[in-house]
Amino acid sequence: MKLYLWPRSLATRTALVLLLGLAIVQVAGLTIHALDRMDVQRLAQARDLAVRVASFYRTIALTDPGRRPTVLADLHRGPDLTAALAGSPPDVDMPEMPTPEQRLLRVNMSMVWMGAPNLRWREMVIYGGHPWGKVVVAMRLPDGEWLNVRAKLEPLRPWHSPTFLVAFSLMTAVAAVLTLWAVRRLTAPVRLLAEAAEALGRDVNAPPLPENGPTEVAVAAVAFNTMASRIRRFVQDRTELLTAIGHDLRTPITRLKLRAEFIEDDEQRGKILADLEELEAMVSATLAFGRDSRAMETVTSIDLAELLRTILDDAGDARPDVADRLTYEGPSHLTVQARTLSLKRALVNLVTNAVTYGGAARVRLALQDDRMVVIEIEDDGPGISPAEMDRVFEPFHRGEPSRNRETGGVGLGLPIARNILRAHGGDVTLANRPAGGLRARVTLPV
Amino acid sequence: MEPTPHILVIDDDREIRDLLARFLEKQRIRVTAVRDGKEARRAWLNGHYQLVVLDLMLPGESGLDLARWLRGQSDIPIVMLTAMGEDTDRIIGLELGADDYVPKPFNPRELLARIRAVLRRAGDQADVRHDPAVRGYRFADWTLEPARRRLLNPDGVEVALTGGEYDLLLALVERANRVLTRDMLLDLLRGRQAGPFDRAIDVAVSRLRRKLEDDGRNAQLIKTVRGGGYVLAATVDRL
Ligand SMILES: Nc1ncnc2c1ncn2[C@@H]1O[C@H](COP(=O)(O)OP(=O)(O)O)[C@@H](O)[C@H]1O
Ligand SMILES: [Mg+2]
After folding, report:
1. pTM
2. Could you say which of A126, A209, A232, A242 has the lowest number of CB atoms within 10 Å?
3. pLDDT number for residue B193
């Protein structure tokens, strides 16, 4: 069975369970308290009734039988007490009083001093009780006459005191608030951990978690930080290795380029130089990937609109065949703060992809909420299959069709672009357009 | 005929030194190649050079220190070989007064083109030679910073330039109020762009005008000279 109302958040769940527990405890406590209170009330009522009825009886019993009706009429009776003399117990439509109650009444009555033992009632029947709101006590006087007393019974009131309920609700409310607060505090570290994991996913150099708080939380934070530093170490080792290889390749590539100049065969020389160009581009991309843009550059202002148009101009100069499919749409000036060389590289990578794989690059720039700029780069190519979508951001991953094509890429364009944009507090996402082609969407804080 | 220029090549890799010397000599440039700062100083004292090609990544004494030393000796043009993508090296080098840089691994023909361009600038027009002390040129509230190869608008915001646009603007700024002939501009843009150079120049100029907010039809900053050529009509302050 699925609980549709069962909340998804741990905090709400815990709070709900705790509040439910609290409610049960409170209801139980309240019930016990009420039952107790009713017992006390019953006891007091029984004693009170017993004293009143017994003293009534005593007065009548002490009176001469002939004068009894007069005395009875004169006797002061409370509004809730009536009495009559009769030859038998009265006819009542009520059964006898339940035994425990009756015993209580009898015990209490027998404790009232009658003046003389022979004055004691010879027989007594008790009808009614709380369910009927009244009680009838029929007592046989020593001379055989019956005195029938009817008394109203006040209903038992478990919630008699008005302050009691107020205090009780207040207590419950305070406990509930405390519970909610404690639960929020307790689950906060879980949320922090999730946020830290998310930040780590975006940037391996994200700041570590604070390692304080309750033991369990501190232990989890330490474990998390250790894991993060291992990942960082791993990424660093790999990039250092790549960078070292890249640096070492520079000298042989330079030599080869020089040697190629001594090859007489023009065609062969051209081909060798083209191969070397490609090799160099790979090394250059690898080095760019290994570089931490934040360490290399400071933030300055740049006109993003002009930068995008310049990138498109460059792309058009390099590929005159697609030049008329490179368009810019947006404000003619828009200043952002950025590490300009890195930002340019990121945007160049995206535009180059659009031109290489999509034969076009339609760039749109817009300001969103005055805090973010959005750059969309669309092309007319095949797009990227859903299975590939995530993988294209992996270093050195190239799409199946591109691998065989002579595009000269190494699969670092997108990872580099994403690293740079994320280091700027922005991001890049890809989506296939319904009309075909790919749309790269870049966000960047102003 | 021009006299054969003599240049000093400083690179720690013997093969590169030899190959580069052979390559440049084939292009009728005399080369003395040395491997480090010590040899360079000795060669410097024993010869007379028109240009230095300096690898910044030298063992022992760093290329930057050597560049500083050379600058102390004379204002001989320096072309630096920088580690690809190491922008800081390049910027420091250019601020130190190097005249140009070529990232390594370099394309020999591009290096040759740069050497020739720098030699021509140094030889033909001593008055506009790259002045190492210049951190920037200010004209009509715009600033061009050679070390960072960037253009700042009057508000100090960078306005991106393509490589060709930058070279063109630098040439115009360095020779402000003097006409640059098409031939000179062709030299500048050669190797930068594909396609017909003639058109490339016009395109680059019109883009530059747009970026400098210089109305194309009634250009005030970059004026077209009848008979082919352009001139930057502005006072240029060196910063
Ligand atoms: N605009 C695009 N259209 C279709 N496929 C693309 C596009 N951009 C990138 N890709 C795919 O993503 C892969 C990775 O791109 P990238 O990281 O730039 O590396 P490279 O371009 O060197 O292959 C490419 O090989 C290609 O298969
Ligand atoms: Mg790519």
Report:
1. 0.66
2. A232
3. 46
A399 lines ligand 1 (CB under 6 A): yes
**Residues B81 and B12 sit within 8 Å (Cβ to Cβ):** no
Disruptive mutation site among B20, B142, B145, B159 for chain A (greatest number of A CBs within 10 Å): B159
A25, A418, A424, B45 from A28: Cα distances, Å: 5, 60, 59, 104
Ligand 2 center from residue A204 Cα (angstroms): 23
Query: Which of B16, B17, B19 should be substituted to probe chain A, the one whose Cβ sees the most A Cβ atoms within 10 Å?
Result: B19
Let me know the angle formed at the C-alpha of A307 by A303 and A310, rounded to the nearest 5 degrees: 140
Spatial separation of the C-alpha atoms in residues A124 and A114, rounded to whole Å: 15
Query: Above 90 in pLDDT, residue A163?
Result: no
Least Cα separation, residue B186 to chain A (angstroms): 16
Closest-approaching ligand to the CA atom of A361: 1
Question: pLDDT (tens digit, 9 = 90+) per residue, A240-259?
Answer: 887 788 778 888 999 999 99
Write the class of the CATH domain A190-296: mainly alpha
Picking from B88, B105, B162, the nearest residue to A310 by CB comes out as: B162
Sheet of B30-34: strand order equals B30-34, B6-10, B51-55, B78-83, B100-104
What domains are there in chain B, each with its CATH number?
A: 6-122 (3.40.50.2300), 137-238 (1.10.10.10)
Residue with tokens 């009522």: A45
Quickly name the fold that domain A298-445 has.
Heat Shock Protein 90 (3.30.565)
pLDDT in tens, A122-139: 888 899 888 888 889 998
* Ligand 1 atom nearest to CA at A412: 17
Which residues of B fall within a CB distance of 8 Å from A262?
A: 19, 22-23
Q: Is the pLDDT of residue B127 over 50?
A: no
Pair A376, A440: CB distance under 8 Å: yes
Do the Cβ atoms of A357 and A438 come closer than 8 Å?
yes
Rounded to 5°, angle at Cα B170 from B167 and B174: 140
Tokens of A158: 């478990």
Average pLDDT over residues B4-22: 93
Identify the closest residue of chain A to B19 by CA–CA distance.
A258
Q: Is A413 in the pocket of ligand 1 (CB under 6 A)?
A: yes
From A278, A351, A402, A421, the mutation candidate for ligand 1 (largest count of ligand atoms within 8 A of CB) is: A402
ipTM of predicted assembly, 2 dp: 0.77
The residue extents of the domains of chain A are 10-152, 190-296, 298-445
Query: From A274, which residue of chain B is nearest by alpha-carbon distance?
Result: B107
pLDDT tier at A210, thresholds 50, 70, 90: confident
Could you tell me which residue, A375 or A43, shows the higher pLDDT? Answer: A375
Considering CB atoms only, which of B87, B108, B155 is closest to A258?
A: B108
Q: Where are the alpha helices (DSSP H) in A203-265?
A: 215-260
The alpha carbon of A362 and the centre of ligand 2 are apart by a number of angstroms equal to 16
Across A419-429, average pLDDT = 90
Distance CA B44, CA B70 (A): 9
